[in-house]
Amino acid sequence: MPSARPGATEVAFCAPAAKLLRSIPAPDARAAVCLTIPVVSNVPEEAVDTSVLSGPLSNAPHPGRSLPAASADSLSLSVVIPLFEEVDNIAPLLARVHEGLAGVRWPWELILVDDGSRDGTGPALVAEAERYGPHVRVIRFRRNFGQTAAMQAGFDAARGALIATLDGDLQNDPADIPRMVDELIERDLDLLQGWRRDRQDALVLRKIPSRVANRLIGRVTGVDLHDYGCSLKVYRAEVIKEVKLFGEMHRFIPVWVAGVTAPDRIGETVVTHRARERGSSKYGLSRTFRVLPDLLAAFFFLRFGARPGHFFGAIGIVAGLIGSLMMAWLMVVKFGFGEDIGQRPLLFVAILLLLAGVQFLTTGVLAEVMSRTLFASGERNHHCICWQSDPAAAGWKELG
User: Fold this and answer.
1) Residue 224 in contact with residue 258, Cβ under 8 Å?
2) Rounded CA gap, 324 and 331, in Å?
3) Which terminus of the chain has fewer CB atoms gathered within 10 Å of its CB, N or C?
4) How many Cβ atoms from other residues are within 10 Å of residue 131's Cβ?
């Protein structure tokens, strides 16, 4: 393509370019985020076809925005709900989801992930999905892999431009989802976290530990939210699918999302919270004690996940430097003052620090090699699906 002269403009399309754009199907044209064709400024105005500017490209996102509010009418939503032994909540849960999303202007689907339940939750989900239609899809694990794995399976199966998650115990209200979708678009966020300000849980066993954990997480990670534990969230699919969840990472999803997007694109909003009506809670006080090691892991991966050598290397250098200074002083004592240093505790401390410094440095090198191997290798799922609804038969729930 010939280069444009200094007087070129980027807002006018020449006739051949307009013809080319008309030949692109609408979905592909809409997917073109930015197409700039320089045109010499002295082209006659009548030779420029600007009608294409009102076509699908007018909906292209502005640079820096993942999904503009102007395209809200063309959105699609995937609702992901992980469940474990919630057979009594299946029917009322699906009824409440359909009531909460009735009348929304965008198509949506519901993905229900059974995390290896043994109380009949799986068959109940399949039966309800057949009753409601192809927009309800079921994924069943061979065994219990945990909530994080269930959410990851739901994210992998989701087809919507936005993804909403909530618990299957009916303590979250699906009626909050439409408002949260509108708020996420209006505020131009990548993640909107629910905040259970009026939480209907036990004070000592649930509320107080949760408040302490939320403040600790905010201080350590820099992502300051009131309620990390609320499962009711709305994400942009293109952002959350950049995060690979495993272990117990679901507790810190906003922290992991902050690793792939700016923290100021993560917000929160007050949501409804109800007391559990059926079944028993799967959470207890023991979960509080698991937060600290998980928080340490999250902090390490956020700060040093791509450069672990900096973490271990810094410790090794400091330890080695202190040990070297101790050894230098002992050499002065030995050769300068002629004193015996063989029985001095300082000698053993200096040797220990030198060995620790070498150990940390070599660990940092090995960690760098392993991290590069991880990033270069293919990713493996941390769950096993025994049955799921046919993806080819999946549909959307639309207004009317």
Assistant:
1) no
2) 10
3) C
4) 10
Per-residue pLDDT of 219-266, as tens digits, reads 766 777 888 888 899 999 999 998 888 777 777 888 888 888 888 899
Q: Please report the DSSP string for 130-176 in residue order.
A: HHH-TTEEEEEESS---HHHHHHHHHHH--SSEEEE--SSS-B-TTH
Q: Which residues pair with 162 in a beta bridge?
A: 77, 236
Task: Tell me which residue has tokens 């928080």.
Answer: 295
Between the alpha carbon of residue 47 and those of residues 44, 117, 199, 284, 373, the distances in Å are: 5, 67, 64, 71, 55
pLDDT for 285-329, tens place per residue? 556 666 677 777 777 777 776 778 888 888 999 999 999 999 999
Expressed in percent and rounded to 5, the helix, strand and coil fractions of the chain are: 50, 10, 40
The helix or strand, by DSSP H or E, that contains position 198, with its residue range, turns out to be none
Two structure tokens written together for 134: 């192809």
Handedness of CA 258, 67, 235, 223 (dihedral sign): positive
Would residue 157 be called left, alpha or beta, if left means φ above 0 and alpha means ψ between -120 and 50 degrees? Answer: alpha
Could you tell me which of 55, 49, 236 has the C-alpha nearest to residue 158?
Answer: 236
Integer angstrom CA distances of residue 161 from 29, 155, 245: 17, 11, 19
